[in-house]
Amino acid sequence: MRILVVEDSSVAARILKHMLTHQLECSIDVAPDLASAAALLAKHDYFVAICDLNLPDAPGGESVELVLGNQTPCIVLTGSLDAQQRRRLLQMGIVDYVYKENRYSYEYVVKLIATLARNRHTKVLVADDSALSRKFVRNLLELHLFEVIEAENGARALELLDAVSGIRLLIADYNMPGIDGFELILRAREKFSREEMAIIGLSNDTDETLTARFIKNGANDFLQKPFVHEEFHCRVSNTLESLEMVRQLWEQANLDYLTSVYNRRFFFNRFSQQVPVLGQQGASFSLAVLDIDFFKDVNDKHGHDVGDFVLTEFASRLKQSLGQHFTVARFGGEEFVVALKGLDGKRALALMEGFRERLAMEPFVFGELELRLTASIGIVALGHDSEETLDSLIKQADVALYQAKTNGRNRCVLAE
Question: Coiled-coil stretches, from where to where (predicted)?
Answer without folding.
Answer: none
